[in-house]
Description:
Layout: E1 2-6, H1 15-28, E2 34-39, H2 44-48, H3 59-64, E3 74-76, E4 82-85, H4 90-100, H5 109-114, E5 123-128, H6 134-142, E6 145-151, H7 160-173, E7 179-186, H8 192-203, H9 218-226, H10 230-233, H11 238-251, E8 256-260, E9 266-268
Parallel strand pairs: 1-5, 1-6, 2-4, 2-5, 6-7
Antiparallel strand pairs: 3-4, 8-9
Helix pairs in contact: 1-11
Amino acid sequence: MKIITIINLKGGVGKTISAINIAYILTAVYKMRVLLIDNDKQGNVSKFFNLHSDDAPGMTEIMTVKGVDASALIQTTAYAGLDVITANMGLLHANREALIDQSRPQQTRLKLALKPLENAYDYAVVDCAPDINMSVINALAVAHDVLIPVKIDNFAFDGLKELVEQIEVIREAYNPALTVKGCFITMYQYNNVNVSGVEWLEKSTDYPIFKTSIRKTVKVDESTFAGIPLLEYARKSTAGRDYEALVGEYLHPLKVTETITKEGSGKIA
Length: 269
């Protein structure tokens, strides 16, 4: 099982909608078995699939219960091959509890919980809160790849340096296989601000960037309210096609052409 952690310390950049659609595309298009992990106390992934409950066990138990059986925490969705481990506000208290619990390792609880599932799924996708708390550290300590969604605005790059520094610390201490696969632009519009932001990222040696950008469209918000992944809700929408291209680029980077369309979406050859 390959584990993808999706994170940005800035909120409102499309982390959750990206995690949902990447996970769905891996399942629907590439026929992978995918476990989507809600690692945010707000529980938006859980709410999207109508699985949210203040009482349902999930990430809270992974962070607090010694010897937890992760398979008992998995909930199915309406989409074959796509399962979810949910989260709720209990994760706030779980992070605090894990932080003060010195009786066992704090940073590798998610890794330990997921180990028995490594042959049950092809991918796990972890949607993280915009924070560096103990459960986020756990998500980085278990991940193979990190994807960083970036929305271009006046504060677009706030926290990127700190995030990459934290990733380096976790790589050295707990997870030498951890790789920042790259940033990708969300809510892209073809204007001076977005073009300049993309140019800054491309010129930076610190942050690799995907050629595919996710274009801004009302269909994203509509799909969120409907609780339906974009390719299911509006397959021909620009953002739906862009997420499909992004997953293709992630899986097969050598097949991506050097050409970026005028609207900002990479194309798969």
